[in-house]
Amino acid sequence: MTARIIDGSALSLRIRDDVARRVVELAKQGVRPGLAVVLVGDNPASQVYVRNKVMACEKAGLHSVKEQYPATMSEAELLQRIAVLNGDPTIHGILVQLPLPSHMDAHKVIEAIAPEKDVDGFHISNAGLLMTGQPLFRPCTPYGVMKMLESERVPLRGAEAVIVGASNIVGKPMAMLLLAAGATVTLCNSKTRDLRAQTRRADVLVVATGKPGIVTGDMIKPGAVVIDVGINRGEDGKLRGDVDFDSAVQVAGAITPVPGGVGPMTIAMLLVNTVEAAERLR
User: Fold this and answer.
1) Phi/psi at 102 (nearest 5 deg)?
2) Which residues of the chain fall below pLDDT 50?
3) Rounded to two decimals, what is the model's pTM?
4) Which residues are catalytic, by number?
């Protein structure tokens, strides 16, 4: 068996086309969705992520603002800047790129963003709404994964879904979205005793640990749908996922590649959330 490849790049382009259409409709009403991306420090990976997000906004017709500050910026100064953006009517979404410098409290910074502008979906208010099944914003990466499963017509009602990685950014919200879709969800973490026993049960397997190759082909149920959220750069400079693709593709029914899988979907869903924020204020 060779798995069907789930093309996140192609799906993200279709979603961006729909975003661009919605932007045109908003423009007829005198509204242009605006996203502010705030970067503190000079982390090379963060700079790439921010550049890609700003470029995606511009291509879709959104108003984008990139604010970059030195790593020496104080937490108080950052909080003050966020307060200004909260009150800016031309900005509908605010994204603070993580990680932040060590002298800043990331939780405090995220909580300073107005919930209605928290297009990353990380604010405690939005996390709570997701928990109750009434999300204002779905976190971009899990949201993108759900769109991929929807595009592949993966039956989630009653399915066994296993998530490897229990982060606040991916694992936990992913569990909430899959539960809402009717799946039976197992959330694994670093303390899980027999990871292989858990992953082998999965009809849908989502891996988001930041550990390259942690899931191999022999850990996958034949025919399962495998979503690889990991993006890791090897010593050779190549990007690899958390799933050993070469062995997994021989077992899975469908699988996302790295790159070209979940990554493009994360940015696409950021645009969707920003447009939704603008549409709510019409």
Assistant:
1) -60, -25
2) none
3) 0.95
4) 53, 97, 120
The set of residues, in sequence order, having a beta carbon less than 8 Å from that of 216 and lying 6+ positions away, is 243, 244, 247, 248
Which element (helix H / strand E) includes 241? none
Element (H, E) at 107: helix 106-112
**Residue 1: what pLDDT?**
65
The domains of the chain, with CATH numbers, are 30-114 (3.40.50.10860), 140-263 (3.40.50.720)
Q: How many CB atoms lie within 10 A of CB 238?
A: 10
CA 42/CA 205 separation, integer angstroms: 34
Instruction: Please report, in range form, the residues annotated as the binding site for NADP(+).
Output: 165-167, 231
The residues facing 4 across adjacent strands are: 254
Enter the DSSP assignment of 22: H
**Contact (Cβ atoms closer than 8 angstroms) between residue 230 and residue 258:** yes
Buried b (16+ CB within 10 A) or exposed e, 156-169: beebbbbbbbbbeb
Residue 69 exposed, middle or buried by CB count within 10 Å (0-12, 13-18, 19+): middle
Q: Which two tokens stand for residue 62?
A: 């959104």
Cβ neighbourhood burial of 123 (10 Å; 0-12, 13-18, 19+): buried
